[in-house]
Specification:
The complex is a heterodimer of chains A (576) and B (310). Chain A contains 18 helices and 23 strands. With 576 residues, chain A is of the alpha+beta class. In chain A, α1 packs antiparallel against α8, α11 runs antiparallel to α13 and α17 runs antiparallel to α18. Chain B is flat, with a radius of gyration of 24 Å. The termini of chain B are close together. Classes of the chains: A alpha+beta (576), B mainly alpha (310).
Chain lengths: 576, 310
């Protein structure tokens, strides 16, 4: 279990860059500053799928090997030191259920809060605040969970089952809009909460160290939900006392680090929590996050040694670093569950399945991945990092421009077609546009804030868009939950091929009552993927994101977690 | 005088009201704020049900006129609202960031004056010499080059190549040097050229000729008589520049990740954080109004020929 969390480090010496390289970087900074000033926040790595954490040893775990990133730690771990991480985005909140962007997520998950269960870097679930795995009733509706005793919050209060119940009640409070609610709407009493009930009947305190969860119907992935970052356990008394200041001025969890200082829009500083219940493996005295640093500047500051880790960098800069033997070794790398795909909507010319298949076969994904460098071309919807990924599922519509032309010729749009293409990824957009032109489709590229384009996506006025998913928990069922549904609820991400979507939905519903890692369930998931890839053809996978972080040679053990694509603090230490 | 102040105050208030109304409409016209504000990973599409819940929670589901009236009502009670992004009072955000912008603006203006006034006077006194021409060319370049580009050049040499100063951020006096000079140098260049031109115009005026005819040295005439008169337009420009800088120096703050209200405003616009955008616009229009008023008062004080009328 502990092993599942560990990692290792990599490190080469700092190099001096030549004038041209540096000037290139500075020029990039100029562009970045302009873009920052003029451009709206562009979507980048959408998410929504998932993956199963294998709680049983029989589950295949390719993720474990795939997640290998930094090399094994060479020095002896020692306490002390600082770990400063730079990021382009700002931290919005430190309230666990609201922490949904990557930065908030990372801080909530790895520093401030614990969940009942958590995912190791091999994506296996292990008990954290829970003392053991849940006891699941025969009807698979009730999960009884024992809690560890003696766990302290940062304010000295002891964790009890009341805090756990409060944390879940709060998430389903209809006056508290948060992303966590979508994962636990299946809990008994969730509907009553919408109608004014004060607490969730489906979460019960059995005794101070035991809590039970009751579902309205079986859901095989429910135990994985406990590991989702938004389910950090918060202290009931402190939250109630803090009122509106909770999550901003008052931040208290059971995690290994406590918030010392938060300069909004600048830096957050955390220090080691001396009473942490699982101290082994936490060596760094302070962890800092510098926010709102443009990627170009992150690279320069990283090279200057001003931070231990940089998340962001422009693609050309990554290429430069990867090609520089003096810098390359400082990269932290590992696979993620993030993947990017094209979403096609039901309107001319994509109402003809031959056109959709032609589009799928026209796009040279390898060119896109090569251009981005931090990407791996894929023909699959299920991420290869997921434990139940089956490499044998076949996509019949992979890159083959000649076949694509034949499909176009056989379609009702054989004389050519036009479509609108909304995207947040300009590199990808240009490549896709050129590929589609080859088969007679003229794609008009639209970019900008998602908010401005969403209505047109819902209405079908825009026929194609770039989208992305990342696993909240390691199972692919999440990918289908909101997308393959056929009802009156119109969204920009739901499949617009309603009848076929319903067929996928029916299969998804069947998976819910099957044991998590059963062959029957995995076969159904494979069939769902095949149906979308080969029959509906409304999602065209493009690439999986490979995480690259800019680390420092004197830091070891900061391995990248595949779910977050960010470094794990446990096990990281400084040799300085 | 009292009438003048009253009229200008009313004008400022009307400007603020109009600016806030326009900003309100534009912020909503560019897309649904709730879609951008629901916490999410970048690029992810938030669930419409949660977006709807968010709208309801923050009153964004109400018709725009209702929302605006509510906003003005709370404003009249001295409440700037709560940031939808940070979930903190907007007032707290400004209390936190405005001192940074104020410090940058004050230091930049002082630096610009310290450089600009002597150099401008020198250029005027030595008009048509090599010194004058070099000064004029340098100033023209500094004015022509965008501030952010100048900032990048400074970063490249002072921080990246020579490692003399920190590249960005805050925390020490050294962090201020590059942002201050990035703002101050173009300002100083403007003051140099303005002062030089004014002094050259004044040098040929009757009172200057008279002073010289009485035997006063040309340099003394320039310093004692010409310079004070030539400074009047500069004072006007400085007042307006200062007010403008206080509203946030977006590009420079962005290049240096300097945590002022300019950078904050930029992010608020990107995130559709309506209350913060509104507060920024209100503060901006207020400061520009006050700056303009201050400029008029300064001119009236410096130039006895000018009378303020109500």
């Amino acid at each position: 279990m502990e092993d599942s969390k560990k990692k290792s480090g990599i490190h080469p010496p700092l190099s001096r860059r030549g004038f041209l390289k540096a000037f290139g970087a500075t020029s990039a900074l100029a562009t970045g500053a302009l873009l920052a000033a003029c451009a709206p926040t562009a979507p980048q790595a959408p998410s929504e799928s998932a993956q199963p954490a294998a709680t049983d040893s029989s589950a295949q775990v390719p993720a474990a090997e795939a997640t290998t990133a930094p090399a094994a730690a060479e020095g002896q771990p020692k306490s002390g030191g600082r770990y400063r991480i730079m990021t382009e985005n700002d931290v919005q909140t430190l309230d666990a259920p609201l922490a949904f962007n990557y930065e908030d997520w990372w801080l909530s998950s790895f520093l401030i809060y614990n969940r009942l269960y958590e995912f190791g870097i091999d994506l296996k679930l292990f008990p954290a605040l829970a003392a053991d795995f849940p006891q699941i009733s025969d009807d698979r509706l009730t999960y009884t969970i024992p809690l560890r005793k003696g766990i302290k919050f940062h304010d000295g209060q002891e964790l009890t089952a009341e805090d756990v119940k409060f944390s879940f009640d709060r998430i389903l409070d209809p006056n508290f809009a948060n992303q966590g609610s979508q994962f636990v709407a299946i809990l008994a009493g969730a509907e009553e909460m919408k109608n004014g009930a004060k607490e969730l009947s489906g979460v019960k305190v059995i005794d101070p160290y035991t809590v039970s969860f009751t579902l309205t119907k079986p859901q095989s992935t429910f135990e994985l939900v406990f590991g989702v970052a938004t389910f950090g356990i918060v202290p009931k008394k402190a939250v109630e006392a803090a009122g509106a200041d909770w999550g901003t001025k008052t931040v208290i969890g059971t995690g290994p680090y406590t918030l010392r200082d938060w300069k909004i829009g600048e830096r957050l500083t955390f220090e080691r929590f001396p009473d942490y219940w699982d101290k082994d493996g936490y060596y760094l005295d302070t962890v800092e996050m510098d926010v709102k640093i443009p990627p170009e500047q992150q690279v320069l500051r990283w090279e200057n040694g001003e931070a231990e880790y940089a998340i962001g960098y422009p693609s050309p800069e990554l290429a430069r670093i990867m090609d520089d033997p003096n810098l390359n070794g400082r990269l932290r790398t590992g696979p993620t569950t993030i993947f990017i795909y094209l979403s096609l909507r039901n309107g001319a010319p994509l109402d003809d399945v031959n056109v959709r298949r032609a589009v799928a076969m026209a796009i040279d994904k390898q060119v896109i991945a090569d251009k981005k460098r931090n990407a791996r071309a894929t023909d699959r919807l299920h991420q290869s990092t997921l434990p139940n990924f089956n490499p044998n599922v076949k996509n019949n519509y992979t890159y083959n421009p000649e076949e694509a032309k034949k499909l176009m010729a056989a379609s009702q749009y054989k004389d050519g077609a036009k479509l609108s293409f909304y995207t947040f990824d300009k590199d990808l957009a240009e490549s896709v546009q050129a590929d589609l032109k080859e088969i007679g489709i003229e794609a008009e590229i639209l970019t900008g804030d998602f908010a401005a384009f969403e209505p047109k996506l819902v209405s079908g006025e825009i026929q194609m868009n770039t989208n992305g998913d990342a696993a909240d928990y390691p199972d692919p069922d999440q990918f289908y939950t909101a997308k393959y549904v056929c009802n009156e609820r119109q969204t920009s991400f739901a499949s617009s091929f309603c009848d076929q979507a319903q067929a996928v939905r029916d299969m998804l519903d069947q998976t819910l009552s099957l044991p998590l890692n059963s062959k029957e369930r995995n076969d159904l998931l494979d069939k769902m993927e095949s149906t979308v890839l080969n029959d509906i053809v409304d999602k065209i996978p493009i690439y999986e994101r490979v995480a690259y972080g800019l680390g420092q040679p004197y830091i070891q053990g900061d391995v990248i977690h595949p779910i977050y694509g960010l470094p794990v603090i446990e096990g990281a230490f400084s040799t300085k | 005088m009292a009438g003048f102040l009253l009229r200008r105050t009313l004008f400022i208030l009307l400007t603020m009201l109009a600016a806030s109304g326009i900003a309100f409409i534009l912020t909503f016209a560019s897309g649904d704020p709730a879609t951008m504000l629901v916490p999410r990973r970048e690029g992810e599409i938030p669930d419409p049900e949660i977006v709807a819940q968010f709208r309801e929670q923050y009153g964004l589901d109400q018709p725009l006129p209702v929302q605006y009236v509510r906003y003005v009502e709370q404003l009249l009670q001295g409440n700037l609202g709560t940031s939808l992004y940070y979930r903190r009072p907007v007032r707290d955000l400004f209390v936190d960031k405005f001192p940074n912008t104020l410090l940058l603006a004050v230091l930049a203006v002082i630096t610009a004056l310290v450089i600009g006034l002597p150099v401008g006077a020198l250029a005027a006194v030595r008009r048509n010499t090599l010194t004058d021409r070099i000064i004029v060319i340098i100033c023209a370049v500094l004015i022509a080059v965008p501030a952010f580009l100048l900032a990048l050049v400074l970063v490249f040499f002072a921080a990246f190549q020579w490692k003399l100063l920190p590249m960005s951020g805050t925390g020490s006096p050294g962090h201020l040097v590059l942002p201050v000079f990035s703002v101050a140098l173009p300002l100083a260049a403007g003051y140099v050229l303005l002062l030089r031109t004014n002094m050259l115009n004044q040098v040929n005026s009757d009172y200057a000729r008279t002073a010289r005819a009485k035997g006063l040295l040309a340099k003394l005439v320039a310093i004692r008589h010409v310079l004070p008169n030539a400074l009047i337009p500069v004072a006007t420009v400085v007042s307006l520049d200062f007010a403008y800088l206080l509203t946030g120096i977006v590009l420079v703050e962005s290049v240096f990740s300097y945590p002022g209200i300019g950078l904050q405003a930029l992010q608020a616009v990107r995130n559709r954080d309506v209350p913060v955008v509104m507060a920024t616009v209100l503060l901006g229009s207020l400061l520009i109004g006050i700056g303009s008023l201050a400029a008029d008062l300064v001119i009236a004080r410096l130039d006895p020929r000018i009378r303020l009328r109500g």
